[in-house]
Amino acid sequence: MPESAPLWSHLSAWLVLGGAFACALPLGALLAASRYCTLGAVSDWCLLGDTHRLRLWAAAAGSAVLGVYLLELWAGLDVTTTLVPYASPHFAWLRHIVGGFIFGVGMHLAGGCATRQLQRLGGGSLKAALALGVAALATAWLIDGGGYRGWLAPLFDMGRVDLRTFGLPDQRLGSLLGFAPDGAGARLTALVAGNGLLLLAGGLSLHRLSRLEWSAGLGLGVAVSAGWWLTAGPLGLAWQEDMAFLDALPRGVGAQSYTFIAPLADLLALVRGHGSLTFGLCGAAGLATGSLCWHWWRGRLRLERHRDGRDLVRTALGGLLLAVGGVSALGCTVGQGVTGLSTLALGSVLATLATIAGAACAIRVEYARGGTD
Q: What is the spatial distance between Cα 122 and Cα 349, in angstroms, rounded to a whole number?
């Protein structure tokens, strides 16, 4: 039997993976310019009562929900069978809550979520490089080394519920309300939820989001929608079919959009010669490169070092918790907080709320103790 053509001989691979990088490149610059940071959003809310950056996050989630709604309506997008099983009927509520909470604490210790670390890396932060390096090692061990299956899965499986025993096909909000997954009721639910999040982002206070903040929030939502189209639309289906005919299915092939924890394991697999470029890895590279371009253009490239040994240990511990929490919760603040929420999956809602709770608790505990040195 003749060998199959290599991955890069297929135009679909160039378009999908190149598209992942191309969409994330301006997004990285836009997020850097707007100071997009979920940790900062929670901190502003907890300590100052300022909801600006939280509402920016809501704008991203709302536009992503509407993007998925339009793709389902016009392009036949199906987000019930995705690489990350957001809508799975196997509802592992415990892993979403515990994993999200751990991720939130790690986000505080590391000085930002995975998305923020990639932005900081583009600005010249050695602290971000350490956090991402530790997170990459831990993520690789959890995903490829059997760490999650051997140590965490037995615990989290105790909280696993099969929704099909209750007559529910999946965990999307429309299904939980009793609507058929592809029916008008489910689509109306998505339409109401997406617009509701955008109204929440607009706010009722005098402190409206600026044009730049709206651009960043909507830009992130549009990028997530573009990711779904690239991997699950007509082009994505062609890509999946082309990859299925290779001698071995490449890593990370399937319907997906942006997430920035699992791709860290893809990076180590690639370095070790056991993997290939993936959608997630190309997206992460595009985000960091976009941030680098913005920092260079604005003259803000700065080498950020650790203040002392304690700061170094804190960053490393934060990176470890980002990995454990992100793998357990099935995503980060973008992977679950925007991409996952765009599917209106209950697990994504729980993971996002738990992440906010974890970060808020860590912030308040440190504030009560008098802050960092």
A: 30
- Residue 200: is it exposed, middle or buried by C-beta count within 10 angstroms (0-12/13-18/19+)? middle
Going from the C-alpha of 85 to that of each of 90, 107, 112, 134, the distances in angstroms are 9, 23, 25, 25
pLDDT band at 39 (very low <50, low <70, confident <90, very high): very high
Contacts of residue 106, defined as CB under 8 A and 6 or more positions apart, other chains included, come to 317, 318, 319, 320, 321, 322, 323, 324, 325
The amino acid sitting at 269 is A
Closest CA to 320 of 135, 152, 95, 151: 135
Contact status, residue 286 vs residue 28, Cβ threshold 8 Å: yes
Cα-based distances in Å from 368 to 118, 124, 155, 362, 365: 29, 31, 32, 10, 5
Distance CA 197, CA 60 (A): 9
> Residue 367 — φ and ψ, nearest 5°?
-65, -40
Mean pLDDT over 90-107 rounds to 97
Reply yes or no on whether the pLDDT at 313 is more than 60. Answer: yes
